[in-house]
Amino acid sequence: MTPTTARHPKTLLVIVAEAAIEKALVRDAQRLGAQGWTVGEVRGAGAEGVREGAWEADRTIELKLICEPAVADAIADHVLATYAPHYAVAMYLSDVRVLRPQRY
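and the corresponding structure tokens:
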């Protein structure tokens, strides 16, 4: 019989934004309490049009952060106030459960 591993509630914050602000987003997320992150390049379309990533200024990233709800809210509020008025930014939050809470 396998023991049941405890699940711990956290919040997943996903930020889809212009690649030009990736370093600033990561720096700010760390400063606001995020312990880790995952970044990948993505393509898509939305209110700002199609972003195919064919040239440097058209690149888009997806930044994923799993953290405490208060940290996720603080990061999201900061991104909305600081970057969303000037850059293409989309965000969403989801409740998640993690197996190794010390990593988040």
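(Above: one complete record from the training split.) Strands lie at 8-18, 38-42, 44-46, 49-51, 60-67, 89-98.
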